[in-house]
Each structure stands twice: as C-alpha cells, then as structure tokens.
Request: fold
Amino acid sequence: MLLNLLADATKTRTVSIGESALYALLGFLVVFVGITLLIFVVWLVGKIINKVSNVQSNLKNEKAAEVQKPNTAIAMDSEEISEETVAAITAAIMAYYQEQQSKCEFTVKRIKKV
Reply:
C-alpha cells in the first residue's frame, strides 16, 4: 500500500493550458471577491462610526444650546455697540501693542460682545 502511494507521488502530472487558466481565473475571482468584501466592511464601519459620532455631537450641541439660550438673549439685546465704545477699545488695543514694541498693524472691523 505504501509503495503504491509512493509510486503515485513520484509520477509527474501534466496540467493542460485550459486547466491552468481555469485555476488562474478562479484565484483571481477569489482575490477580487475578498478585496470587495474588505472594502465593503471598511465602508460599513466608517458609516457606523460617522452615525454614532453625529448622534453624540448632536447631543452635545443640544446640551450646549440649552445652556447658552439665556446668554444669546442677552447678546441679542446688546448687539449694537456705540462708536465711542469701538474707539475706546481700539485705542486700548493700540496702547497695549505700543507698550509691547510690536510692529503689528491691525484694523478693527467688528467688535462682538461675548
């Protein structure tokens, strides 16, 4: 029995071109399906993570909006700042930069109360 197996192992088997082409195509197909499956899994995980992070950020934004609602009403009432206040703030900033010996040139375009 062992001799028969040994004799079969020593025989060389020829593979036709058609059979080798079939094996090559089967290998290509397996690799293509595997890569496609990996791409789909990575895409799906990305979608899940984005959805979870969006839900968490929406919750944070809602909590922040609830906390900031009283503050926005106050800011709306005092949106307009007089020109004298703007001039005073600009002069204070300019005096600060002159003390620091800074060569920073700036223009105040808007002052917003925080």
